[in-house]
Amino acid sequence: MHSYTLIAPAKINLHLEILGDRPDGYHELVMILQSIDLVDKIELRPNGTEQIRLHCNNPQVPLDASNLAYRAVEVMRGEFPKIAANYGGVDIFIDKKIPVAAGLAGGSTNGAAVLVGINLMWELGLTVPELQTLGAKLGSDVPFCISGGTAIATGRGEQLDPIVDLDNLWVVLAKYRSLSISTAWAYKTYKQKFGSSYISDSEGVKSRTAQVHSGSLVSAIAHKDGASIGKLLYNDLEKVVLPAFPQVAQLREAFQEVGCLGTMMSGSGPTVFALCESSDRAEIVRVKVRETIPDPDLEFWVAQLSSAGIEVTSFSK
Ligand code: ATP
What we know:
Helices cover 39% and strands 29% of the residues. It is an alpha+beta fold. β5 and β6 (159-162) form a beta hairpin. α1 (68-79) packs across α2 and α10 crosses α11. The chain is globular and about 55 Å long. Adenosine-5'-triphosphate (ATP) binds at residues 61-62, 66-69, 94, 100-108, 110, 141, 183, 267-268. Belongs to the GHMP kinase family. IspE subfamily. Keywords: ATP-binding, Isoprene biosynthesis, Kinase, Nucleotide-binding, Transferase. Residues 67-149 form the GHMP kinase N-terminal domain.
């Protein structure tokens, strides 16, 4: 049996709009998701036992059944019990570079990598759409993390419509190390504040989704027009996170002032990103914001937008 090493990219949201409630308890969303080349490395090794054992270099990451990498193996075991019994347990090594609870889908992309890796290890032959259907059971961002690139995501985020991949732009990401925001808190607070403005019928949802499909941001992406993309970034969750966490609002302002193409919080935050036309420009923006906010608790990353989803980098006997 082989061991597999996979690369699992983070994502940012170029657009995140909350349309309404869903009967299943999730929110009806329309988003534009974008992979970046800030990645975790996941290694899967058959361990000759029945157990799923997790190892991670970041102590913030849970090593029990709450880890999405662990749950991904359980989903596969549930779907293919006989095959799973033949293959036994697995050791999962997570080399974590993506900050945790940061709005960058760090857990979802690990779960996506394990689905792709187990598909190979157990020789299941599942297609990408089949893996994405299983991924939706793990989490709303998992189907996107499997295929990556640039995509419009609707429903609770699991229905994907790939669009032109962006790769000609860079981002500076910044996050306060000690600050994490729970996705559940952000959506709950949004509902408390703005629930009365939700679209309540499926025709309304369809029509707003169609507007985003044919809208200016998708057109700017089609033309790889960084200046327009920067101006059109949008995230509803900023309306609740920025007032509650002034340091995130201040970071956002600092990026705005140093002159990037545009800046926005990713997902439910607290990571803020600044879009830049080149890696040199991104580096200048990083240095300037570091000078404006010298707090050592603030961490930075520079990454390129990427067309890659989960990729297998090596396998060995
Ligand atoms: P999203 O953008 O999908 O909402 P996020 O980037 O905000 O996710 P994650 O990094 O996925 O957040 O972490 C959210 C929580 O998920 C963490 O606090 C952690 O307890 C849990 N978690 C489960 N599996 C993982 C994993 N493999 N890596 C990181 N966190 C994980």
